Amino acid sequence: MVEQLSGGEILIRALQDEGVEYVFGYPGGAVLHIYDALFKQNRIQHVLVRHEQAATHMADGYARSTGQPGVVLVTSGPGATNAITGIATACMDSIPMVVISGQVMSHLIGTDSFQETDMVGISRPIVKHSFLIKSATDIAITVKKAFYIARTGRPGPVVIDIPKDITSPTDLYPYQYPDQIVMRSYTPASTGPPEQIRLAVNLLMGSERPVIYTGGGVIQGNGSAQLIQMTRLLGFPITSTLMGLGAYPGTDEQFLGMLGMHGTFEANNAMHHCDLVLAIGARFDDRVTNTVSKFCPYAKIIHIDIDPAAISKNVVVDIPIIGAVDLVLTEMIRLLEPEVTRRSDEQKQLLVEWWEQINGWRNQDCLRVIRQEDSKIIKPQEAVQAVYKISGGTAYVTSDVGQHQMFAALYHPFDEPRKWINSGGLGTMGFGLPAAMGVQMAHPDARVICITGEGSIQMNIQELSTCSQYGLGIKIINLNNQALGMVKQWQDMQYEGRYSHSYMDSLPDFVGLAESYGHAGFKITSLDELEPVLEEALSMDNRLVFVDILVDPMEHVYPMLVAPNGSMRDMWLRKGVRT
Amino acid sequence: MRRIISLLMENEAGALARVVGLFAQRNYNIETLTVAPTEDETLSRLTLTTSASDTQVEQITKQLNKLIEVITLVDLTDGEHIERELMLIKLQANGAQRAEMKRTTDIFRAQIIDVTQTTYLVQLTGSSEKLDAFLRAIPRDSVIEMARSGVSGLARNGTK
After folding, report:
1. Which superfamily does CATH assign the domain made up of A380-557 to?
2. Which one of B68, B70, B71, B73 would you mutate to disrupt binding with A, by most A Cβ within 10 Å of its Cβ?
3. Host H or E run for residue A53
4. A490-544 confidence digits (pLDDT tens)
5. Minimal Cα distance from A146: which residue of B?
6. Which of A59, A342, A404, B122 would disulfide-bridge A479, Cβ 3.0–4.6 Å?
7. Which of A52, A266, A454, A555 is catalytic?
């Protein structure tokens, strides 16, 4: 016999049948029936946040670190609007997420009733897709569709808006969860076109100064193993966007470091001077290309992406390959293997010369930390280096947005995918702590470090309370320069040092604050304390530790692309020193 | 250049809003837009005209195709096609002007579908160009009000 369930129960059962472990949410009037159904089961753990924005970032951190969609449950009106920033964050970085929002009762929609907002309308530009459920009999199929859409193709957030009456406990409906779903209007790409792949292989083998440029798509598409295999087979230099770090080992000799606005001297020069770019799961973002008309002036471009709309959006490419990254790269490797063994001595020599040129740029040592010998002041880069050294580089690292994010990306190499978790596209301050919480939920035994700044951490600091409730032993590294460092850097460079509202006055005593939530706290003010205190802090397993590190407030992030009108080889290398 | 984009989409609440929202969100322009269900009630046909460069049109069509509810999309201007637009226009038709208005209407093979002592209500179908030509042919101050349907079109071949 088919089970008879209420709408609220159907929703929770459908989430269970979809394999959902955690729901990050906050109750309210429109979702009370759903919360009652949650209460009566124990297969899904609900995580009670302190603000709905944090719920979306937790789900996001969970998704980025596992590859599985994160799930959010919020009420109508302010609950839904508070979730918007996190949905936009996930959308910009193509993160699978399902957001369930309560809605006022069907007959009240459109009457400006209490806690009513048009969630489907408000979220439309920042979702992959959205649904407004009209009948309880549509709940199961809609959940199935939402997860399918969120995780396939180019992943993204999906919103399901459910009016309260649809989840009423008094009306029962037969429940059956669909095994599979076919949508006539949605067929994501899988294997790439063989003839395009062949053309790409020919171009790769004929190139003299190639560069592989990878993005977050390699991580989202689980193509890391194939990327490593192909890159080593070819022996080509490889660089990555902020979103792609970890897809190729950051400590490997062939890796040139990150490219783009704060990319390394060698990566940006290699891009500018190369004759072939193999772009994989990257989208030629304006933070990478600098002036588009001056981007890679000598290069032909091959672009592998699962999203046809990413092809030739910002930069026109020569060989587009639309397909899933793992499948396309597997096919490429198959075709490349015999070609590579046939490589002529002349070709090998050209590659050696290209590496010599790149190593010349590398010898600039663009990430060298410049400090005054007698000073005890901690450079933010040194703090990141110390974290890397003490943690062994194997932790999950989340970040917020600003200078500390760039220092983390540049001074903490990542050797594995899904270990570096940050808001690249939207640049959302307040992301780091809740994202770290989602990661810690997904990986209870792993070490999770949140590298943040005193500006960003205060945007979701209320979640220290949630961390107490669920016993999350995250290590928060606060690079405290008492200023909005990146804003201040731009004001130094472009506004003659007029620090318009870029200082953080009236900072709390972070150690005392952490302790008031039951956590541990340390404050580090001089260089000789840095390593010993970090050592102690990172060794405190299962406890949240807030490490407040006072760093040089005048430090800038370099290299930095010269803008406007610069190319990728035009960089500031130090204060007042440019190429 | 001017393009006519014709797409079939799920006949569902919100699908139209997604198409229109996309144009606003990505800073594309819509000149005309028509939408109605087809012979299959679960599908709507949406036809829109836009002016954009070739690269912009490529992006517009890709972004539209990415919408989950869009099933097929063709740029009719890529091949031979028929386009039609309907215009209803209420014109001053007084004294000597009345006969002249009637002559112009006949020349354009338009129909007068409502008459008062001082006005004609004229219906004209054809390409947008023809409708524009009619508007140029009549005195501007004779127009009381008008409504245009926007362009509908189909490809000129025997298949779907």
Report:
1. Thiamin diphosphate (ThDP)-binding fold, Pyr/PP domains (3.40.50.970)
2. B68
3. helix A52-66
4. 999 999 999 999 987 899 999 999 999 999 999 999 999 999 999 999 999 999 9
5. B68
6. A404
7. A52
